[in-house]
Structure formats: C-alpha cells, structure tokens
C-alpha cells in the first residue's frame, strides 16, 4: 500500500511538472526578449525561403513512412502495402504529436500494424529498431559536423561531442553483440519484454480502445532472435533513410534561418538538429513546448543568433511540424482506419 501511494504521488508530481514547465519557461523567455525586435523579425521574413522549407516537412514524413514500410516488409510480412504504411504513419503523426519522445506516434503505429497483420512483438521490435537507428544517425551526424564548426572551445559543445561518441559507439557495439550472439544471450528478449510491458501499461491509461486489438503472443524468444538477425541485412538501407531524414530536417531549418536574413552555414543546423532530437525525447513537457524555445535560444545563441530571432526560428520550425500534424489529421478524417482510435 505505501508503495502504491508513493507511486501515485510521484506520478502526480510528474504531471504537475509536465504541465507547468512549458508555460513557466515561455513566460520567462518573453519577459527577457525585446518584443518589438521579435515582431520586426517576423515582418521581415523572406517568404520564399520559408515556404520552401515548409514543403520539406511533408517530405520528411514520407521518408519516415517508407523506412517503416521497408522494415516491416523485411521483418514482418513481405506483402505489406506501402499505402498502409503511409496512411498510418501520417495518422500517427497527428495522434501522437503532443506525447514526449513521439511515444504516442509509436504506440499508434504499433497497434495499427498489430491489428492489421498481428504480431505485437515484431511490430514493437520494429519501433525499437527505428529508435536505435535515429539515435545512431543523430550521434553520427553530430560527430561528422563538429569539425566544421569554428567553436570547439565551447564547453557545452565539447560535452555534446563526448555524449555523441558514447551513444554512437555504444549502439554500434550493441548491434554487433546482438547480431553475433543473439542465440546465446537472452538480453535482447528481456529488453523486448520490458518494452512490450511498458507499451501495454501505457495503453491501459489511454482513452483510446487500442487494447481490444491486442492478442497474447507466443514464442516470443524465437521471434525476437529471428527479427534481430533479419534486421542486419536491412541495416544499410535503413541507415541511409535515417540519414536522409536528418539531412532534410536540417536543410529545412537552414532555409528558415535564411528566411530570417541570417547567413549561418548549413553545418550549424546540421549539428544542432540532432542535438534537439535528443532533447525533445526527454519526457518533461507536452510537445516539447517551452523546452524547444529555450533550447533554440541557447544553442543558436552560441552561433551568434539573437534571442528574438532564435525564438522566432523555434516557432517557425514548430509551424512546419504542425503542418504535418494538420495533414495527418486530414488523412485521419478521410481514412477508414479512423475507427482504430474511436
């Protein structure tokens, strides 16, 4: 009983911080910027650059949907249609936007694919693989972009580099060990079980009736080992698609920076975009609001951008993300899969 009570108290504290941190940070930011300068920057936006950047955001989702489609075909079922992946990837974007670390997006896609093709374990495994790919590529891009930055003396940037090296080589070692010894060690199965348990726990607390589509899986150990071994041959294509996603995302931000009449080199957003990915995975605010704005001001400030322009950059990149959410909502309304979340 004391454990249950303390757990509820801790969850209440988490919720309080989760919903109070964003407005507190935003209020603090607006109290410390020049509002007139902010609106002047807004009026002087070069729309041609901004609109071009806006077009790139749907392309990001399409590449991500294709990566999901490719991994499902290799690990689950070879005849899964591309249309299913595209529709549900867009819908998941809309449904799970405000969840931290895109967990709502992942949950929706796992359940949609499980309902259609079965195998909760395999679909969960694909989602985990996507996360590993994303983390690996983000770390790699940070490492590659760092030498082009003329700011190596900054302590924060140097610590980010160390963190990126640790993440990258840890994931490489993990994949190597998993690929070579998955028949001998049970750690992959244990990880998959923990992820699945966490997923089911989250589903119990959601208002969506996802759980009615889930069936108890059998032979979990064999599925996990089979999936991991089958993932290795698909690694090159999956990595390339993950790299393309990061390159497009950073180029869209670069275009928005140009729309604000700043001439930062492309390597700056190329370096900062994956850093932001790591930050936005932290479950400390809904939709990363507040955290996003503070991070943009801090990191782009290191490279000479004033607070007002960095804040506007944050809002404009958020508008790109909201554009994809709007498209996902439209797909949801016209699609027959809407009943999945009724």
What does this entry look like structurally?
- The chain is mainly alpha-helical and 342 residues long.
- Helix content is 76%, strand content 0%.
- It is built from 13 helices and no strands.
- It has helices spanning 2-31, 35-43, 47-75, 82-95, 103-117, 120-145, 155-181, 187-204, 220-231, 235-259, 267-280, 291-302, 307-334.
- Helix 6 (120-145) crosses helix 10 (235-259).
- The two termini are 35 Å apart.
The N- to C-terminal Cα distance equals: 35 Å
Task: Catalogue the unreliable spans.
Answer: 215-222
The helical percent reads over 70%
* Biggest pleated sheet: none
Strand content: under 5%
Overall body shape: globular
Average residue pLDDT: 79
Order of helices and strands: HHHHHHHHHHHHH
- Based on CA atoms alone, the radius of gyration comes out at 21 Å
Pairing-aware structural class of the strands and helices?
mainly alpha
Number of strands: 0
Helix count, DSSP H or I runs of 4 or more residues: 13
